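INTERNAL AUDIT FORM
Audit reference: QA-55
Scope: verify that the stored structure record matches its stored sequence.
Auditor: D.O.
Record contents follow.
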Amino acid sequence: MGLEGAGAKHHAQTAAMLLAGVSALLSFFGVGLYWGDSYTLDLGSLGAPASRYSFFLVNWTLFGLASAGFLTVGIARTAKHTGIIGKISEKWRSSPDGLWLVGGAIMGFAIPAAIRTFVLQGAPLTDDESAYRFMAQCLIGGRVSAPSPPMKLFFDNVFMVNDGSLYAHYFIGWPALLSPGVIFGATGYMNSLYSAVTVPAVFLSMRRFVGSSWAKASVVVFFFSPMLMVAASTEMAHTTCFGAIAWATWFCLRSRDESAPWWSHFGFALSLCIAFFIRPTTALGLGAPLLAAWGYAAWNATPTSRRSTAIASFVLPSIVMAALFLAANTVQNGSAFQTAYDAAQNYEEANGFRFAGLVPGEVLPNFDFSNPRKALENTALGLLRLNCALFGWPLGLALVFLALRVRGAGIFWAMAAGFLVTHFFVLTPGIDTFGPVYYTELGWPALALSIAGFKKLGARSEGGAERAAVLLAVLIAITSLCYIPVRFGALHKISENINLPFDALKKSGVSNAVVFYIRPWTVQRLISPTRHFVFWRPNNDPDLENDVLWVNHLSVKHDKRLMGHFPDRKGYLMLWDRGGTPRFRSLDSLGPGEAPKPVIGGTGIISF
């Protein structure tokens, strides 16, 4: 065969590869359209993926892997033939690191901000967000709780202590970081800001681990992770804890240098303490290996003055943050060593589990040490769901195993192991709206090890680095075309349902009012089979100054009694018509027995 014939054969094989890759993607959509109702997801599970979601994942894995394989080979062959890979690689390597720090931070903010605005439409994805926002409002006013309102049963809510003082059962690290958003009316975008702040930590840590070129790739993977970006579009605590641990990683690595400055030890301690203030169990699991690595290096530092500087720089912020942590417990809960979780458990029991998130026999936080087998099942489920949700790739986290022998990977493997140990007995992996929420921060070592796996894959043969880069680019591209639109479509559907009462209230013109509601918050059959995790009304501001106050409905008689405490406001009861539209009926127009019975839960006793 002549050169011309060999070239034609090469082009034909390349075209066949590209066609097969595109055909696999079209087949994925075709199967979903014909059998899967265009992959309408049945989210709402705390355990194993539900049937429709499983159907989507199976098809995405099969067709996505086929497409990724064919497209990678086809594109790599085309790029090699045209020489474009070498040109792109050169530009990639020569692009200034500072440009990636700044540009990556901008994207780290812009993407979750856009998701919040256009996908979530400003809606919360869980009831937790309202509790965090309430605490942020308290903190911006210089307090860690608010006085319980009059007739406090109306104001009982999930995740809240209401025993004379009203406050959330969460640690106050994230509300403190959320509080600046209260001033500007932008609490929903604070996580986007902290996502941007996380990018430099990701880049700097990865540059030490895998070099500048792959560190740039890690930044791209970070802001193309649907799980991490959706988390950053909410008012939940995971994004800031992830960021604090990422910064702790870099400060730890920097502090181990022979010329390590004092601020690297100071920054390491402060980052760890911030993570602990936000999510203590997560900070312990991921931070313990970092602490061990730092301690070993600091203790063996020479001369002695370096050791003393390291220890002093670490101890100072640790003492200050520990004092703040214990002081917050004392002021909130009456004891330095009693957390708000303990107070919430005590309150819900004393309150007869009325308007409570727990039932008798459950404990906070959500750990169960009595059933190791169940704990193992939950851990496996958490890893399965993280594998599917973190990057959305059909390849999942498979490449982390190539990082088993990569130099410097030990610290990330230890962090992952520490996390799994501390979370082994967690009751569930967390909600599935955008991933196993309790496993969000495990995404940091998973991201680092995945990028190390790509680098290792590229080092196996001549030209392998370029092929590994093409594979990564293909995975990001097809995930953006196939996986992300399906997940975001479900989130958009969810947000519309969650926002129904808010939208209806705005259209009704109701203002300066007290609105009584009956659980659940929305009629979820309207978006079935998709479900969400917002079941309760939003919390009011600590001083009850919002234009509309949301409270629990007890009875027309009791509701009217509460209105005596708000003489300048008008009362309404939110009811749902048969078409699934919220209606607001004036409380004055209702007589005894005309309103539906309340859903109180627990003892069901109406007493104050």
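Auditor finding: record pair retrieved intact. The two ends are 93 Å apart (CA to CA).
Action required: none
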